[in-house]
Structure to design on (385 residues):
């Protein structure tokens, strides 16, 4: 037995749990690479399908490999009727992330061999999830507004098809570029809370659907993926751009956290946020609705103030979740759907980590230091007060 309290790394801060060749986050310099390719180059030259292929297979596809991958995805974007029924039933009552988790979990029913962990079968399950999660997110959005389900349009790419299935309108060039960029930037981010939770479940040799469902549960929290919805709620609460500075100053004085700022690893400007920032300014020029204009103006003023107050001095910079919300509003997406979109795009990262981890699986089982008493005498219930 330990006589001395061991060093405990709360929240696993600073602990390496594995080796990985999937992505590299350089928190000090605000850089991010997927499989060695800089996020800036991928955002400029690639697309979500190609990035997903890169993450899962570890290399960029040839034209034939890409076409085959895209074809598989397009073939699988539709949803089984039972899944649609459950989404419709839950839509008026449950949070979209709870529906996302339930509907994703249901997909195991349609897999004839869910426990097959061969590489080919694992990748096949990941492709199925990659194709269906955006459709689930879109169906949730439709049913929440009591609208009919829209069948996928195979002429569109995955992210554009998501917007189409959600709004019933084929996105224009700007919207298509923006939604695809969001999918690319949310695709992967090394072993953060949700990816780690996916790996914990995968390490028990549970199936890909179980691991993914775990990840969705973890991503929901406002300290992680849920920050995008929480950040937009704050921007909405600020209400008027002229109220921005007062609201934030008071929140900071009250020791409140400002959602969408700060990161466990980034101590510099989040490179993903940098890449979407110009879209905020461009959206302002594009004559947005009054509501969206206010959100964008508040976001830009809040960002400026927070950088002045906490950026250089404390290393608390805007993360992508702060800017994502106003941009999703530009696309007409309800804030409750922000984190489900995150799920749909993060599937490629989660999937690639499952593949990598199962190459060299080890059950995750950390230790905790017990601080309670031992050998407490048992008192029968009638003697307890
Ligand atoms: N607003 C104000 N102060 C903050 C913020 C913030 N957003 N984030 C951190 N701080 C302060 C803390 O109050 C603390 O101050 P103290 O030292 O005076 O007590 C200090 O910075 C350290 O903060 P911790 O929460 O201990 O740092 P940790 O590394 O655990 O936090 C986290 C990272 C959880 C992301 C944090 O910055 C936060 O809560 N941010 C808001 C939520 C958010 O945006 N999450 C999304 C992250 S990106 C993603 O997961 C997709």
């Amino acid at each position: 037995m330990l006589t001395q309290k061991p060093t405990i790394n709360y929240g696993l801060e600073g602990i390496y749990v594995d080796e990985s060749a999937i992505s590299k986050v350089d928190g000090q310099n605000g850089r991010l690479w997927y499989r060695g390719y800089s996020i800036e180059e991928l955002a400029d030259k690639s697309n979500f399908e190609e990035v997903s292929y890169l993450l899962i297979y570890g290399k960029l596809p040839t034209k034939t490999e890409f076409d085959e991958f895209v074809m598989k995805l397009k073939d699988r974007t539709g949803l089984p009727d039972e899944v649609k029924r459950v989404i419709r039933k839950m839509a008026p009552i449950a949070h979209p992330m709870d529906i996302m988790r339930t509907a994703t979990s249901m997909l195991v029913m349609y897999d004839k061999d869910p426990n097959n962990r061969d590489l080919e079968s694992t990748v096949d399950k990941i492709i199925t999830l990659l194709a269906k999660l955006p459709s689930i997110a879109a169906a949730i959005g439709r049913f929440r507004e009591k609208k009919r389900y829209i069948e996928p349009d195979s002429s569109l790419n995955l992210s554009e098809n998501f917007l189409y299935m959600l709004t019933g309108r084929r996105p224009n060039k700007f919207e298509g570029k923006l939604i695809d960029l969001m999918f690319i930037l949310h695709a992967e981010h090394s072993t953060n809370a949700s990816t780690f939770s996916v790996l914990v479940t995968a390490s028990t040799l549970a199936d890909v659907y179980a691991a993914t469902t775990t990840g969705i549960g973890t991503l929901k929290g406002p300290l992680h993926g849920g920050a995008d919805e929480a950040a937009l709620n704050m921007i909405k609460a600020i209400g008027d751009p002229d109220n921005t500075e007062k609201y934030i100053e008071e929140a900071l004085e009250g020791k409140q956290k400002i959602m969408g700022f700060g990161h466990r690893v980034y101590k510099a400007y989040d490179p993903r946020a940098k890449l979407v920032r110009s879209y905020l300014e461009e959206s302002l020029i594009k004559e947005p609705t009054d509501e969206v204009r206010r959100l964008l103006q508040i976001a830009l003023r809040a960002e400026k103030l927070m950088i002045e107050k906490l950026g250089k001095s404390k290393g608390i910079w805007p993360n992508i979740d702060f800017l994502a919300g106003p941009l999703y509003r530009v696309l007409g997406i309800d804030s409750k759907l922000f984190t489900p979109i995150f799920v749909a795009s993060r599937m490629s990262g989660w999937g690639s980590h499952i593949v990598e981890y199962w190459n060299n699986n080890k059950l995750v089982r950390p230790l905790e230091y017990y601080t309670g008493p031992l050998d407490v005498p048992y008192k029968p219930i009638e003697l307890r007060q």
Summary: The chain has 16 helices and three strands. The first strand starts at residue 23 and ends at 26.
